[in-house]
Specification:
The complex is a heterodimer of chains A (523) and B (82). Chain A has 15 helices and 28 strands. Chain A is α/β, with parallel strands linked by helices. Among the domains of chain A are: 172 residues, Rossmann fold (3-Layer(aba) Sandwich); 75 residues, Luciferase, domain 3 (Roll); 102 residues, 2-Layer Sandwich (GMP Synthetase, Chain A, domain 3), CATH 3.30.300.30. A five-stranded mixed beta sheet of chain A has the order 11-12-13-14-15. In chain A, strands 16, 17, 19, 20 and 21 form a five-stranded antiparallel beta sheet that branches. Chain A has a four-stranded mixed beta sheet with strand order 2-1-10-9. Chain B is mainly alpha-helical and 82 residues long. Chain B has a single domain, classed as ACP-like (Non-ribosomal Peptide Synthetase Peptidyl Carrier Protein, Chain A). Chain B is 57% helix and 0% strand. Chain B has four helices and no strands. In chain B, helix 1 crosses helix 2 and helix 1 packs across helix 4. The chains are: A alpha/beta (523), B mainly alpha (82). Chains A and B meet through helix 9 and helix 14 of A and helix 2 of B.
């Protein structure tokens, strides 16, 4: 079948019209209805003036309506631009401007957060009650004749996902329809996804990992159960009630799920239905693996790795987890992962080089950043005419071909499942009137991946009251970007005579003060 | 019970930096005031501050996301454990 999610949905809705596709707290939807709502949404968007290739922001809570909005934009030949709810003004503004967004679909009860952008982009509500001011998709869908065609090809643009970089603002990664569709097939191949799967979805549709759960559901006719993880007992009750078979997680979810303070007794629940747990976005600790095994005795555990530029790179087959617990595994199907030295030659086993990926999961480019595109999306003489992704990440392969992560290319802080740019943290810390200089960096903390830490100097040379500074930052930054650790320095060491902060020494001195060993990094 | 709620409100404001209106019947998770990390901190704070012990079954969204529900639970457990 030609590879695109709309085609997959057309097929599955024909085959399984009455089967439940998505379950949420508010409502459930069958494949037949999901298709009809998506087509009606596409027609609404047409009537609202959306043109082919227009970028449409989706800033919504995870609901059936969010999935419908995403699919509606795809059917309308638009390009989906996910916007994480509760991002603050400047971050959203950057995504609107940078993507050239034509319209933003949001929740009615989120309008107060986003109306400041009403002059910059059109607002449409995709979930919640009708308002006087903005068009409302659930209401409009009742009156339109659903669109009945899809005329995009696999190479056409489907989505732009914004990912933080260590310098400057987040970059938009341009993704083709083909990437989304083949991502569903590739992941399903190694996880063995089948129609009977019931996927427990704690993940957000704002990132490729969460979206992929929706794509697999559509491709194979599974059932997707939406859940917002807050307290583990609620998750476990849902999993047992819904007979969940598949649980995609990130390490930070495992930390929350097995938080000892919450006195969860997983033996109270029947989890015999759970056939796998898969995880990406950081290393799995031995405790996490032990907790998963004890809670879900029938489940296989898949540890995976990838960068958004190429969606997914590697996975570790579950039967290798005990023998190679620190490896990120081998290339996913239909992709090849190479370890190359500075000259572009393949490294010998156990020699560290750059992770370079080729294959079906590769996205197109950074949509508005030719300079960084040229650095990352490049050709290699061994594969003429083909583009490869040069990750910059340092890895090696062992004698068995298993890949190990050594160091990331950038200074990005991976915390609670997010990538946080040190520059963006520093910018906000510097806004405080008494802060003079700021340097942000990662501090290892396996329960959340890494903590955001920030060293700073002050105008009177004295430390600021931590609660005051944190309070200030909380009003400026989404929670995951607020530094967990703030360290006052009398002055910063300077690099040579260039006047630049010696970030390495600042980080090292901070590590010394915190009493931690350097060089611990996750995948 | 309003005393308990006042203490919880003060804690949430200092923990989250949230300055908007807080009603005891708002679902603070849905409203985005609390996230999955600080709702756990709130539960830990409440147990320590009011000297009650909450069991695993108590620590669910229905009991913690609304301050009215949490305050009622604290009163109930405090009476039992007194």
């Amino acid at each position: 079948m030609p590879a695109s999610i709309p085609r997959y949905l057309l097929k599955t809705a024909q085959r399984l019209p009455e089967k439940v596709a998505i379950v949420s707290r508010e409502r459930s939807v069958t494949f037949g209805d999901l298709l009809q709502e998506a087509l009606a949404t596409a027609q609404c968007l047409r009537e609202l003036g959306l043109a082919r290739g227009d970028r449409v922001g989706i800033c919504m809570e995870k609901t059936v309506d969010q999935a419908v909005a995403i699919l509606g934009v795809l059917f309308a030949n638009g390009v989906v631009v996910p916007i994480l709810p509760r991002l603050k003004g400047p971050n959203i503004r950057h995504i609107i401007d940078n993507s050239g967004m034509s319209a933003m679909i949001t929740d009615t009860d989120r309008l107060s957060e986003v109306t400041e952008f009403a002059g910059v982009t059109r607002l449409i509500t995709g979930h919640g009650p009708v308002t006087n001011e903005w068009p409302n998709l659930p209401y409009m869908r009742r009156f339109v004749q659903p669109l009945n065609s899809f005329d995009r090809i696999g190479n056409d643009n489907a989505a732009i996902i914004y990912s933080s970089g260590s310098t400057g603002r987040p970059k938009g990664i341009l993704i083709a329809h083909r990437n989304l569709a083949e991502g569903a097939d590739i992941v399903a191949e190694y996880l063995g996804t089948v129609e009977d799967d019931r996927i427990g979805c704690m993940l957000s549709f704002n990132f490729d990992y969460g979206m992929n759960q929706l794509w697999q559901t559509i491709r194979f006719g599974c059932t997707l159960i939406l859940h917002e993880l807050a307290l583990p007992n609620d998750l476990f009750a849902m999993m047992a009630r819904e007979r969940v078979t598949a649980l995609p997680v990130m390490p930070v979810f495992l930390t929350k799920m097995f938080d000892r303070r919450l006195k969860v007794d997983t033996s109270r629940f029947d989890f015999s239905s759970v056939r796998y747990v898969c995880s990406t976005g950081g290393r799995l600790s031995a405790d996490m693996i032990a907790d998963m095994r004890s809670a879900f005795p029938a489940a296989q555990i898949y540890s995976m790795f990838g960068l958004t530029e190429a969606f997914r790179g590697t996975y570790l087959p579950p039967d290798k987890l005990d023998a190679f617990p620190t490896s990120v595994g081998r290339a996913v199907p239909d992709c090849e992962v190479l370890v190359l030295d500075d000259k572009g030659d393949e490294c010998a086993p156990n020699v560290v080089g750059e992770l370079v990926q080729r294959g079906a999961t590769l996205t197109k480019n950074y949509s508005t950043d030719p300079e960084n595109t040229a650095k990352t999306f490049r050709q290699h003489s061994r594969f003429p005419g083909e583009t490869l992704v040069f990750s910059g990440d340092k890895v090696y392969k062992d004698d068995n071909g298993f890949i190990y992560f050594v160091a990331r290319a950038d200074d990005m802080i991976k915390t609670k499942g997010f990538r946080v740019s040190p520059t963006e943290v520093e910018t906000e810390v510097l806004r405080h009137p008494e802060v003079v200089e700021a340097v942000a960096f990662a501090v290892p903390n396996i329960s959340v991946g890494e903590d955001v830490a920030c060293a700073y100097t002050s105008s009177d040379g004295k430390p600021l009251a931590e609660t005051v500074l944190k309070q200030f930052l909380k009003s400026q930054l989404p929670n995951h970007m607020v530094p967990a650790i703030l360290l006052h320095f009398d002055s910063f060491p300077i690099l040579g005579n260039a006047g630049k902060h010696d970030r390495k020494t600042i980080k090292q001195q901070s590590y010394d003060r915190l009493g931690i060993a350097p060089g611990v990094q996750g995948g | 019970m309003s005393d308990i709620i006042a203490v919880l409100v003060e804690y949430i404001r200092s923990e989250t930096g949230f300055t908007g209106p807080l009603s005891a019947d708002d679902d603070l998770l849905s409203a985005g005031v609390l996230d999955s990390f600080n709702i756990v901190s709130l539960a830990m704070f409440a147990q320590e501050r009011f000297g009650v012990e909450l069991e695993g079954e108590d620590l669910v969204r229905d009991n913690l996301a609304k301050l009215s529900a949490l305050a009622a639970l604290i009163e109930l457990r405090r009476a039992e454990q007194a």
